[in-house]
Structure formats: structure tokens, C-alpha cells
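Render Protein GrpE in 3D.
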Amino acid sequence: MLESRVAELEEELQYSAAEMVNTRQRAARERSEALRYGGMAIALRMLPLLDSLQKALDASDDDDSDGLREGVRLTFKGAKAALEAEGVTQIEVDSTFDPTNMEAIATVPAPEGSEPGSVIEVVEVGYMYYDRVLRAARVIVAEGE
């Protein structure tokens, strides 16, 4: 009786060990697939951009600058929407320099009516990825006195 119970427990242990191995293999396979196919959502959202670019190229053949302008506008709008859907947002540049999400690339004497430390010009738009800075806004800042 004791021997049969030991044999039964050994069999259960083997099944549990095999199940653990299978679970680890399945988890590794799922991780691999997630890494490989995780970009599908953004790729799918980018396809309309290719269409807009093609339309812009087609319009440029007609020597119609309005058509080209419209194609580029559609491309920009589509790219922005696709990125926003993935958590990318434009950094809103206030009048005051914020070193947490801006990079001062130059300073200039404060123009009439502007405060020292205020943003004079945005040279390159910055973007956030959810709550992290993806790319800091590159700005020109008014010098202090």
C-alpha cells in the first residue's frame, strides 16, 4: 500500500515537472511572438501614410503644387494620428522654459516685452511617449539681465 502511494506520488511529480517545462516553453514562445509581432499595431497604422505619400507623389507629377501640398498635409496628419494612437504626444511649449522637457540650444537678448527665461522660438518640436520624454523640444530662450 505504501509502495503504491509512493509510485503514485512519483508519477504526479513527473507530470508536474513535465507541465512546468511545457509552461516555460509556451511562455518563451509567447514572449518571442510578442517581440516579433508587437509592432504590428503601429505598422498597420502607418500603412495609410504610405497611401498619402503615394498620393503626394502622384500629385507632384501633375505640376500642381496645391495637390502636392494637400498630399503632404494628409501625410503629416496621418503620421501624427498614428503616433498619438501609440502614446506619442507633442510637447506643448509654454512661454517659460522648462528644462524637464526642453533643451535650450541658444540664448538671445530678451526682446522688448518678453521675460528672461521665456521661450522665444521652437526650433524642433518635442514629443512625449506617455509620461516620458521621447525627444526634448529644442528652443531658443531669452537671456536674463
